[in-house]
Write a structure and sequence with these properties.
about 425 residues; about 40% helix; 13-stranded mixed beta sheet
Length: about 425
């Protein structure tokens, strides 16, 4: 085996995209997008004795604000055959040595190699696969494992996700999505519509994120961030916008009330009559809520947007944000269900929801998000997590202390700057 530096972009990306463990951040397109945060990058690989490329890794290099401290970073780890233990050991050692040659005090790698197999509900599957040997190989190669911790515990990337298998008949995919027909019917009545968005409409995604940032107190990304990502990935980007027309929705709901009242006149079953009356009450309450909000205006209103990257049949939900709306206007569901079918028809084989907390505790603050993503019928994946190859321990410890302090101060500052109180947030 031979460690190689400066793999051509075309060769590098072709190998990465074809890899079974690829991620959109493991291609050169991501480096082009991140050039403002990381000063330089390298496309690295391994060739076999016949000159065939058998592994790749994108290594980013960052000069920190702390004088004399630089580090390197491999987002989502390397692409290779995870069954080839000799290759993993060889590449891991070479990557650490290369980071040292670039003047870095440590190399961070957060691998997207799965750890152990889980059931769809998140529980560990008995007699399922176990890839913890990769952790042992990396530790033997001089890496420190940062632990199998909670998904949102300060990790740079989440250790957990749900991924939907689209390499099956559409009827089976649709059947696996909870309340698919029911929710789509409700959204149709409320004129909730998804369409493909344009580059010039990226501001909608930024505006939706800004609304959420006011509630949670984080710094929202501007439209220019999403523009940079689109510029880097080009045709791999798929952008969707969900809208409604509250006036049309109101008319549909009022018609549904009248139709239901007429239907009651011909019903004889008391149980069905009771259900119909309850439905009328719920609809009338929703109608009054919309009228009281002042949103009964005959115009298109954007409820949210979704930014997706698709490479080699694999789909990643980079980000999705929706505006606060009424309960039965299920914008997030509409975006996912539309995108899944649209990309399925374009040859997608997997659909990654990009991150959940990993906690199965209903009391967890992010459990609602977990359950929502689970409802689409995907597989629950747990990754190995983060590894640091420490090259200069003194500088590394200085960086850790400084980074933790900086992160705490930044969170507090952003919370003060962007968090807003109020019922409309």
């Amino acid at each position: 085996m031979k460690f190689i530096v400066g793999v051509s972009e075309e060769r590098f990306n072709a190998f990465a995209i074809a890899s079974t463990i690829n991620h959109y951040q493991k291609t050169s397109y991501f480096a082009k997008h991140m050039h403002k945060d990381y000063q330089t990058y390298d496309l690295l690989g391994v060739e076999d004795e016949n000159g065939n490329l058998i592994a790749t890794a994108l290594m980013l290099h960052k000069n920190t604000i702390m004088v004399g401290i630089r580090y390197s970073y491999i987002p989502y780890g390397f692409n290779l055959d995870i069954e080839d233990k000799k290759l993993i050991s060889f590449f891991a050692k070479e990557l650490k040595a290369f980071a040292k040659s670039k003047g870095s005090c440590f190399l961070r790698m957060d691998s997207n190699i799965t750890r152990i197999e889980h059931e769809k509900n998140g529980k560990v599957k008995e007699d399922g696969f176990n890839h913890e040997y990769v952790t042992e190989l990396l530790m033997d190669a001089g890496y420190t494992h940062l632990g199998y911790n909670y998904g949102y515990s300060g990790n740079w990337l989440s250790r957990y996700t749900y991924r939907l298998n689209l390499d099956q008949p559409w009827s089976k995919v649709k059947k696996g999505i909870k309340r698919y027909t029911n929710y789509n019917k409700r959204n149709a009545m409320r004129n909730v519509v998804v369409r493909k968005g344009s580059y010039e409409e990226l501001h909608y995604l930024a505006e939706c994120q800004s609304q959420l940032s006011q509630k949670l107190g984080f710094k929202p990304k501007p439209a220019s961030f999403w523009g940079s990502l689109w510029d880097a990935y080009g045709d791999a980007v798929h952008y969707y916008i969900v809208t409604t027309n509250y006036h049309s929705a109101l008319q549909n709901l009022e018609k549904e009330v009248e139709d239901t009242k007429a239907h009651i006149e011909v019903l004889k079953d008391e149980n069905k009559i009771e259900l119909a009356k309850n439905n009328i009450l719920a609809l009338e309450e929703e109608i009054q809520e919309i009228k009281a909000s002042g949103k009964d205006i005959d115009e298109e209103v954007v409820l949210g947007a979704k930014f997706i990257i698709m490479q080699g049949g694999n789909v990643w939900n980079v980000n999705m944000y929706t505006q606060k709306s009424f309960l039965n206007f299920r914008a997030a569901f509409a975006l996912h269900s539309y995108a899944i079918e649209d990309l399925y028809n374009q040859g997608a084989k997997t659909y990654d929801f990009e991150g959940v907390s990993g906690s199965l505790d209903p009391k967890d603050e992010f459990y609602g998000m977990h359950e929502f993503k689970r409802s689409f019928g995907g597989d629950f994946l747990e990754y190995l997590g983060e590894f640091d190859a420490i090259i200069d321990e003194h500088k590394y410890n200085r960086w850790k202390k400084g980074y933790r302090l900086f992160s705490r101060c930044r969170r507090k500052l952003y919370y003060m700057m962007y968090h807003k109180e109020g019922e409309n947030v």
